[in-house]
Amino acid sequence: MLTYAIGDVHGRADLLARLLARIEEHRAGRQRRLVFLGDAIDRGSDSAGAVATLRDLQAREPDAVTCLMGNHEAMLLDAAAGTNRDLWRINGGGATLASYGAAHPGELPAEVVAWMGTLPTLHGDARRWYVHGGLDPACDAEGSDRETRLWMREPFLSSGRDFGRHVVHGHTPTRDGRPELLAHRTNLDTGAVFGGPLTAGVFTDEQGPPVEVLAVR
Fold first, then answer.
1. Domain boundaries, the chain
2. Model-level pTM?
3. Closest by alpha carbon to 165, among 200, 193, 207?
4. pLDDT range class, residue 187, cuts 50, 70, 90
């Protein structure tokens, strides 16, 4: 069994399609799981396409596809509920509205907003924790609250804490377009929407850290 964790897509549906094709080629018929680490939307030109791809994958393979909530999905949910709309817009929400042909958050498809509202903020398997932003070094993974999981950078990034399982996350784009591979955590946000690649970490049931990395531009 292979698990592919995919970093922040941010509306780059073109790169997402390319990476999924690369994953299919790589797995060569072997069983696989997909974990999307959140922030499928905003900034890039085709958030609607990226979300449609994720929803279709999850509908076809509900036991093999996990989509996490990112802070950008959380901002969209707030905006659709009538709060913090300016915060969402200045963080790329306008591009998402445009991709749906919507003038304001209230015009977003109800089924898309409802789907985002169901997304978990933490996923775990035997070897790893998957989260969008980070975990609170002062408590365990499951004790970290929603805001921490969605938004955390520091002190998580510099803590070096061992949470008992390898932590796989996105949210903080790397400056060199390469994933950050450390003893206790892997950062797969390689800045796809800023000109970097879209990256997937390849994981097995035998060890926590990735055994390989796939990236497309």
1. 2-69+115-216
2. 0.98
3. 207
4. very high
Distance CA 60, CA 40 (A): 18
Query: For 117, what's the count of Cα atoms within 13 Å in the CB-facing half-sphere?
Result: 11
**Mean pLDDT of all residues in 137-141:** 97
The string of pLDDT tens digits covering residues 200-209 is 999 999 999 9
Cα 16 to Cα 78: distance, rounded to the nearest angstrom: 25
Cis amide bond preceding 137, omega within 30: no
Topology given in CATH for the domain delimited by 2-69+115-216: Purple Acid Phosphatase; chain A, domain 2 (3.60.21)
Beta partners for residue 168, in sequence order:
130, 186
Q: Are residues 217 and 178 in contact, defined by beta-carbon separation less than 8 angstroms?
A: no
69 near 118, Cβ under 8 Å? no
Residue pair 2/27 in contact by the 8 Å Cβ criterion: yes
